[in-house]
């Protein structure tokens, strides 16, 4: 292990922190003195029988509480890491981990979050093999050339096969755009020059890990974080536009087919060519949901039919408006209105109309 120390310059705030050339705080490190400590860990340092325990302790030291699911049929496990960070280290602070590993599944559940409430993000940059990641009801596979982002403050799963190699970059939570903090995009937009620059900078830093000074590491880290944040802001803007388009298309589709009782949120997502989760998020940005949108349109049409089509019974109105039964219609109606469908019809009917 090699470590270099540097006394942090005084920032404009008066606190001793590692700053960039413009005097800003080095994010997440308000300390009087920091040391750069590249750390290497390898399961080859211990016996075959101890390698899984070694890997478990080593990864937890870098990332906090996790469960590990190793390949039970394998007789050995190989893994090694190169860790770049400043000391004293905390799991919420910036670090880069370059790892190669045998097959393993990492799980962070609600119980571990309560014991170890680390709220930061992990930028995932696969180099060899695939990273299968799942969080908040979504699951994606990241391949070389793709980047992903996970929240460490929510339950998650990360899995890969034998010989996988990747960089994992810890991004402090306080720098993330508000829309990204709780639900970061598991797969970031591809073919982005900014994200390509992030990957290139990460590669250069890991390639030169033994010769970096603490000052250089702080400078590069600050710039890398800035680029990541700006890329995420662009990702958010692009995502907002996409969600607006999905929401508009969903409203048009619901208007066209809400009378069909077989139309469900899953059907809408399939017709729109997106996942159900994307549809839910798109409509959530407009304070509604697929089910709520269908119910609102169907209730609106039922009200119109109750008033304008006196020859229909309440049950007929329910079916014609897309409800599978009169009971389902009446429950939906009661959730929105205080008077019954029959009373509403009597109150709003015009003279001469016959009630059914």
UniProtKB/TrEMBL annotation:
Species per Swiss-Prot/TrEMBL record: Nocardia otitidiscaviarum
InterPro entries found in the cross-reference section: AraC-bd_2, AraC_XylS_family_regulators, Homeodomain-like_sf, HTH_AraC
Annotated signal sequence range: none
Keyword Transcription: yes
KW Protein biosynthesis (keyword) present: no
PROSITE patterns per UniProt: HTH_ARAC_FAMILY_2 (PS01124)
Taxonomy of the source species: Bacteria, Bacillati, Actinomycetota, Actinomycetes, Mycobacteriales
Keywords: DNA-binding, Transcription, Transcription regulation
HTH araC/xylS-type domain: residues covered: 248-347
Protein name, entry field: AraC family transcriptional regulator
Superkingdom of origin: Bacteria
Any one Gene Ontology molecular-function term assigned to this protein's record: DNA-binding transcription factor activity
Entry-linked PANTHER family: ARAC SUBFAMILY, HTH-TYPE TRANSCRIPTIONAL ACTIVATOR RHAS-RELATED
């Amino acid at each position: 292990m090699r470590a270099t120390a540097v006394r942090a310059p005084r920032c404009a705030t008066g606190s001793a922190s590692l700053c960039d050339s413009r005097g800003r705080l080095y994010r997440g490190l308000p300390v009087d003195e920091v040391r750069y400590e590249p750390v290497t860990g390898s399961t080859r340092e211990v016996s075959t029988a101890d390698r899984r325990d070694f890997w478990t302790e080593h990864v937890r030291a870098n990332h906090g509480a996790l469960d590990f699911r190793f390949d039970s049929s394998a007789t050995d496990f190989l893994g090694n890491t190169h860790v770049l960070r400043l000391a004293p280290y905390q799991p919420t602070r910036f670090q880069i981990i370059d790892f190669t590993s045998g097959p393993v599944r990492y799980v962070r559940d609600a119980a571990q979050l309560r014991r170890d409430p680390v709220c930061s993000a992990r930028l995932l940059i696969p180099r060899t093999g695939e990273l299968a990641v799942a969080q908040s009801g979504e699951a994606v596979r990241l391949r070389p050339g793709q980047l992903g982002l996970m929240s460490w403050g929510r339950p998650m799963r990360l899995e890969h096969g034998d010989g996988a190699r990747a960089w994992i970059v810890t991004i402090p939570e306080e720098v993330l755009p508000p829309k990204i903090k709780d639900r970061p995009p598991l797969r970031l937009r591809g073919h982005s020059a900014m994200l390509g620059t992030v990957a290139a900078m990460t590669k250069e830093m890991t390639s030169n890990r033994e010769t970096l000074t603490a000052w250089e590491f702080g400078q590069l880290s600050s710039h890398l974080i800035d680029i990541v944040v700006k890329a995420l802001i662009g990702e958010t803007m692009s995502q907002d536009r996409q969600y607006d388009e999905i929401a508009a298309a969903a409203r048009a589709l619901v208007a066209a087919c809400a009378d069909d009782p077989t139309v469900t949120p899953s059907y809408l997502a399939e017709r729109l060519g997106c996942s159900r989760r994307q549809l839910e998020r798109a409509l959530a940005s407009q304070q509604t949901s697929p089910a709520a949108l269908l119910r609102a349109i169907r209730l609106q049409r039922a009200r119109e039919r109750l008033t304008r089509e006196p020859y229909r019974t309440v049950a007929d109105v329910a079916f014609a408006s897309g409800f599978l039964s009169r009971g389902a219609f009446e429950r939906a109606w009661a959730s929105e209105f205080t008077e019954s469908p029959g009373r509403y019809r009597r109150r709003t009917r015009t003279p001469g109309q016959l009630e059914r």
